[in-house]
Every structure is written in structure tokens, then in C-alpha cells.
Amino acid sequence: MSRLYAALVHHPVLDREGQEVTTAVTNLDVHDIARLARTYELGAYFIVTPVEAQRRLVGGILTHWLEGKGKARVPARSLAMETVRLVADVEEARAAITEAEGRPPVLWATAARAVEGSDVGLGWDAWKARDPEVPALLVFGTGHGLAARLVAECEGLLPPIRAGGYNHLSVRAAVAIALDRLVGER
């Protein structure tokens, strides 16, 4: 089992005005990031939302693919959906990883832009230099990014993905690029 885990955080995240909010889970994020988690052999993919109705919605999607007609129709999707874990907050994800690994994970945040007030800014090279035996939870934000208070809890921060002046990737694309840079074959 991989010691790398990913979390898609729906709270605490920011809206376009910089206010802390909770965003809605999207079906595409559930499916596509689960496929990435299986492809890159992550220990698990956590969907983080405090909204019980959202967790029920995702639970229904998972049931369809893990136990329902979806499993028989598209077995490869079922394999991907096995990576998904639903949690109310990042602490619950950390506890699950600690239980599985026997030690707590370090948190690494990702950002589409510089995070004001953060003294965390280690980057891609620092990630590769870290101890690979220590489990790590890579935290991705929805909306307009992770709240600064969550970033402050992280040991490292991966820089924004840049390829030019335009920077408005979907979170699914950002997860794919980040995972490939971190653990993809070279």
C-alpha cells in the first residue's frame, strides 16, 4: 500500500471574496480523482465535507459503483471507487491514515496561487527530499483554495502549477498534474 494519500477538501475553503465557505461535492471530482488515486496507487482518496447530505450523495454514488449495477457494467470504475473514503474533516482523514499506517501523516497543501501569511513554501524538490517512509496526506482545495488556517497546519506547500500566464485549472487537472510530478514514472 502506498504511503501517499490525497484529500479533496470542501471545507474550510475560500470563495472568490476570500471568505471561508463550504463548497459542494461534484460527481466528476468523485469519479475522476478516484481514477487518479487508483492509477497512482494512493493509499486512499478522501472526500472531505462536513455536509451530511453531500456525504449521503457520494455514498449513493459509491454504492452504485461498488455494489450496484455499475460494478458489473464497468469493473474498472469499481476498482477506482474502492479508493474513496468519506470524512467530515481533515482530522478524520488523518485519524484513518494513522490507524492504517501506525503513525500520523504529514500534511502537504497545494495551492493555485500564493497563500498570504503562510510561512510554508517548500515546493516540489522538498517533497521529493522528504522521508518516503512517513505517510503523507496531500490536501487539495475546492472553491478558491484552502483556508489559510488549514494551510498553516501543513508541513509543506506545493507551488501553483504554472505553464504560462493563465492559471485556472480544474481541481481534477491539478490533481493529475501534481500526482504525476510527485510519483509519476520518469
Number of helices: 8
Low-confidence stretches: none
Alpha carbon gyration radius: 16 Å
How much of the sequence lies in strands comes to 15-25%
Biggest sheet descriptor: 6 strands, parallel
Q: What coarse outline follows from CA principal-axis ratios?
A: globular
Kindly report the spatial arrangement of strands forming the biggest sheet.
5-4-1-7-6-8
Number of strands: 8
Q: Separation of termini?
A: 21 Å
Structural class: alpha/beta
Q: What is the residue-averaged pLDDT?
A: 91
Element-level helix/strand string = EEEHEHHHEHEHEHEH
Q: Give the fraction of residues assigned to helices.
A: 40-55%
Q: Please, could you describe this protein's structure?
A:
The protein has 186 residues and is an alpha/beta fold. The chain contains eight helices and eight strands. Helix 1 (27-39) packs across helix 4 (75-81). The radius of gyration is 16 Å and the shape is globular. The chain starts with a strand and ends with a helix.
Give the arrangement of secondary structure elements.
Blueprint: E1 4-9, E2 13-14, E3 20-21, H1 27-39, E4 45-48, H2 52-66, H3 69-73, H4 75-81, E5 84-87, H5 90-101, E6 106-110, H6 123-129, E7 136-141, H7 148-151, E8 156-158, H8 171-183
Parallel strand pairs: 1-4, 1-7, 4-5, 6-7, 6-8
Antiparallel strand pairs: 2-3
Keywords:
17% strand, 186 residues, 6-stranded parallel beta sheet, alpha/beta, globular, two-stranded antiparallel sheet
What's the short story on this structure?
The protein has 186 residues and is α/β, with parallel strands linked by helices. The chain has helices at residues 27-39, 52-66, 69-73, 75-81, 90-101, 123-129, 148-151, 171-183, and strands at 4-9, 13-14, 20-21, 45-48, 84-87, 106-110, 136-141, 156-158.
